[in-house]
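Please check both lines for our workbook:

___
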Amino acid sequence: MKGHLPIRWMAPEVLSGNGYTTRSDVWSFGVLLWEICSLGCTPYETLLEDDVKNFIQAGKRLDIPPGCAETLYQIMTSCWIDIPDERLKVNYLVSSLRRFRAEGGIIYGERNS
C-alpha cells in the first residue's frame, strides 16, 4: 500500500525527486508558518493535490494570510525561493523570527472575514 505524501509542504526540488535537505525543510517550515498565521487553514486549499505541484513549479506561492504582518510574510516568502541555496539558512530564519518578535511583532492578527 502506497502512503500519501505531504505535497502541500514539499519544496519544488523534492517534488521533482531530488531528495530532502535542510533547505527543503526551510521551505516546509515556511508553509507551517503560513498555517499558523492563517489560524489553521489548509495550504493551497482551493487546489487538488495533483495541482499543487504545477502551481509551485509555475512560481506561484501562497498569499499572505489575512491579518498577517507583512514582515512575517516576507520571512515566509524567503523560505519559498525556488533555488534552494538562496533560501534562508536555518540559523538566519531563527534570528529573523526572534528579531520580529523582539520588535513587537505578533503572529496572530485579527482575521478578516
